[in-house]
């Protein structure tokens, strides 16, 4: 039985002209599935709402989606939201899966888009129970609402081996089973838990409990294993309960500045969670941490939580006397937290943001600088901290780790003076992307292995993601805005697309790869189509890159199927 706690408010968008009179709606639909009658894309069959997330029922299973603010977004700006989507595929469900529901009733919802009433969807049907028949031979899945949540049961029919059941997550970061037998699902926004299932059979009119445990089949697929007595000639109901494992408010006490944002998170091999962002002077710290607050806000914070979210293991400021914030964080196998972001100068063109004696650039340059700061596993001291910049504004926006001590930082820079080290020279524009490889076990100039800058003459670049493969190649995605077709951006021969195409926002997504030989150079670069690359991950062995992002046009290329 899967439980997703909803707080659902019925809503209706009116986008027509003049008054609209609707028929009397049916009962509230906050505990129901709303049928798709043309208001959503065709692949969505039904939709419900759960704790800020949409739950869409597809032919293949369930799709969860939720919005979150991007680091650079103004508070409440709907145009600068990120969207996280993850799916749960139910067995082999697909185009031939038979899906039935109970009798529907009119909902309180209506979708009135445009002035033409022929396109209005008024009170689409809502249902309370949906069955996916034969998601694999002998197995049905039943979805319904109970109390305040969406739940599902696996019904394994008589004669079917429960060990044959397979469910596959897509778009998650990790799937594991904890010591209590619960299934932990880590997404980019938190950790969710499917409780150890409650299972039973009805034999001779009597409900008999059956011990069923989760079992993993690879990185993102799970199934079930029956322990103890079980009658193969009777149906078996497997009822996993789904909930949010933990979410914690870790903010300030409500000072006048009210500047408290978490921009990034990471997890270590033990499941501990690390956060960074920017906060004001009332953010909580722990005894023995590196530092309390400074004199000027906002400031960078780094906090570490236990894997169950119950304990703040450490929380520290990285203070200066200017405005600073952390935008990306990564953690190595030793538990050291690597943070990048931006450090501004104060009105006297100075900052007291901490740097270390082994830094590549211990002194802030002119204008805002990027930084790389590394905390020891206890959060009590700095292993390495360096500015990165020249005479123009820079920021650090993404970080990825290689072997111990190796960190790749990416961000943007403008104009002149940004350090280019052991790297091929490429065109510069109004705003460029940089990729800098650090070795924090080295000191001073030797701690930067290479620093590469790339852009397009007269054009503006943005960067939003970086990933590294097993060979140390760095993959970077973002976007470019150009009035001249970005003709000087170094697209490589054989690239997917050498043509700059922008959408309504004037952006074209891009992807490039920096090789791991010196001098560092771009081994591959391509445009992707109108939009913005928001994140990239790479198969560490094959080198295949997976890019996600956004687009504001239907012209973005898609593949068949």
Describe the 3D structure.
With 561 residues, the chain is an all-beta fold. The protein has 2 domains: 233 residues, no CATH class; 167 residues, no CATH class. Helix content is 0%, strand content 46%. It has no helices and 41 strands. The strands form 8 sheets. It has a 16-stranded antiparallel sheet with strand order 7-12-13-14-22-19-20-21-15-6-5-4-3-2-11-8, with no helix packed on it. Strand 9 and strand 10 form a beta hairpin. The N terminus is likely disordered.
Largest sheet: 16 strands, antiparallel
**Count of distinct strands:** 41
What is the general shape? globular
Whole-number count of domains: 2
Number of helices: 0
Radius of gyration: 26 Å
Terminal CA distance reads: 32 Å
Major β-sheet strand ordering: 7-12-13-14-22-19-20-21-15-6-5-4-3-2-11-8
Q: In percent terms, what proportion of residues is strand?
A: over 45%
Mean pLDDT: 84
The helix-and-strand class reads: mainly beta
Q: Which percent range fits the helix content?
A: under 10%
Low-confidence parts lasting 5 or more residues at pLDDT below 50?
1-30, 72-79
